[in-house]
Amino acid sequence: MGIYLSLFIIISMVVYAGVDNTLRVFTYLELQIKFLPIRIRLFFFKKKLKRMLAKDIEDHSKLIKEIKNDR
User: Fold this and answer.
1) 13 with 25: CB under 8 angstroms?
2) Across the 71 residues of the chain, what is the mean pLDDT of every consecutive 10-residue run?
3) Which of 21, 31, 35, 67 could be cross-linked to 17 through a Cys-Cys bond (beta carbons 3.0 to 4.6 Å apart)?
4) Residue 69's Cα: distance from chain center in Å?
């Protein structure tokens, strides 16, 4: 049943939009699937950078307080 539904959808896409536009849709989907791991890695990299920046801000504020206290 699922294969017939998929085949019907693809044939309907070809009839409605033509072969070129249907292939463009599949190319777009392929690129989105290839880009997904990059977006996931970017998400974790962004979280790591935010954590590092928060730590650096704390260290920097402590250093500024120490400098002010030394004066």
Assistant:
1) yes
2) 91 91 92 97 95 82 80 70
3) 21
4) 45
